[in-house]
Amino acid sequence: MGSMRTNNDLWTAAGFGVLAGMRSMTAPAFLTRELSRKPTRALKRALPGLTSKKVSQRLGLLALGELVGDKAPTTPPRIKLPPLTGRILSGAITGAAVSRDRKGAKLGFALIGAAAAIASSYAFYGIRRFVTHRLRVPDLAAGLIEDGAALFLGARLTRALR
């Protein structure tokens, strides 16, 4: 039973990393929203900021701002160093947070989240460029489709935490 839970947690950590690669603030926004609803005492001790309703609300606002800002022509590509660094950190933090083992597994889960964020950043950058340049889909439409996919993934991942 323990290894099955760990296996599911690994996939959840990777999923949050993928989400961070798509939208860096959406991953922690979904995570904190879920964690702030029913924080356990152990979670409050281990991750006090991620179980806070205030932090959850602020991250939700940042995620909303990111969804809007993503469509601006002046927004740098997600694979440039500053945005990519933010996505890596987001993937690492959310990856570590889903580890139910509050001791040793955190670093491994953080690395899984970070690696998934890097892979996802490059994959979705490539997909978005292909869709807009080759298929001639307007960038706004491509961005909105990706937003929908990110929101769907975030909703599925939070269900996995319950």
TrEMBL record:
Keywords: Membrane, Transmembrane, Transmembrane helix. The chain crosses the membrane at residues 107-127. It comes from the Bacteria. The keyword Transmembrane applies. This is DUF4126 domain-containing protein. It comes from Corallococcus carmarthensis. The lineage of its organism: Bacteria, Pseudomonadati, Myxococcota, Myxococcia, Myxococcales.
